[in-house]
Design goal:
By secondary structure, this protein is α/β, with parallel strands linked by helices. It has eight helices and six strands, in the order E-H-H-H-E-H-E-H-E-H-H-E-E-H. The structure holds farnesyl diphosphate. The site of farnesyl diphosphate has 17 residues, from helix 1, helix 2 and helix 4.
Length: 247
């Protein structure tokens, strides 16, 4: 049966964030190297964006490369960068056709020049799309993002553009890489690991967390919808009591 039919389209999360984990273990289980796993991860990326778009999720953010991932063997880092460059180029026509607006968060200035160029081109070419925003977290670390926000806010205070009293949660939001995105409603992590791994810590304050044993290269639309159905069966109270929630 089509799992999509079980979804209440009135209560779809606005923003879904995904920690795509398990590429290495997937490859190893097939007697292949880790890079083979990353290459086979692209179908899962495509399926997730498509699944999200079909039920009107407005934003999907993928943890593609963390600040810590730079410590991996050079061969693997290079392969991931090539994969990023080639897949962005290859997918551009479909992004345009499907109304996907591409966005990036993280220290993208640390990426190889060629990756920066392709990324900027794709962001520019898709900037007027409105169906769904697809954000790639690249050289991303949440603590680094928060430190960066604090530095920028401090500069404004020193320059008297902002007073200490004026600093609110909104000020912090506006200085994060995600300033133009809604808070995360649902976070999915694959491969049976139960961690957040320095991903969108501020933005996930009230997110529902969903963990699955599926390894990322095996993740398909039906698995994405399983997560959405699970999310819809939960009651989000935001600190209130059940009785106060009207939905
Ligand atoms: C985690 O698996 C995955 C990554 C660190 C990289 C994510 C990259 C992709 C999904 C492929 C390319 C993406 C784009 C956007 C082009 P792991 O290597 O940590 O797996 P393991 O935990 O089994 O070793």
């Amino acid at each position: 049966m089509d799992k999509k039919l079980l979804i209440n389209l009135q209560r779809v999360p606005k923003h879904v964030a995904i920690i795509m984990d398990g590429n290495g273990r997937w490859a190893k289980s097939k007697g292949m190297n880790r890079i083979f796993g990353h290459k086979n991860a692209l179908t899962a990326v495509r399926e997730s964006v498509e699944a999200a778009s079909l039920i009107n999720v407005k934003a999907i953010t993928l943890y593609a490369f963390s600040t810590e991932n730079w410590k991996r063997p050079k061969l693997e880092v290079d392969a991931l960068m090539s994969l990023l460059i080639n897949s962005l180029k290859k997918e551009l026509a479909d992004f345009i056709k499907n109304g996907v607006k591409v966005n990036a968060i993280g220290c993208t200035e640390n990426l190889p020049k060629k990756a920066q160029k392709v990324l900027n081109d794709v962001i520019f070419e898709t900037k007027n799309n409105t169906k769904i925003t697809l954000t790639f977290a690249l050289s991303y670390g949440s603590r680094e993002e928060i430190v960066n926000a604090i530095k920028n806010i401090s500069k404004k205070v020193v320059n008297k553009e902002l007073s200490e009293k004026e600093i609110t949660e909104k000020t912090i939001n506006n200085h994060l890489y995600t300033f133009n995105l809604p808070n995360v409603d649902l976070m999915i992590r694959t491969s049976g690991e139960y961690r957040i791994s320095n991903f969108l810590l501020w933005q996930m304050a009230y997110a529902e967390l969903y963990f699955t044993d599926i390894l990322w290269p095996d993740f398909r639309k039906e698995h994405f919808y399983d997560a959405i159905i699970d999310y819809q069966n939960r009651e989000r109270r935001f600190g209130k009591t059940s009785e106060q929630i009207t939905d």
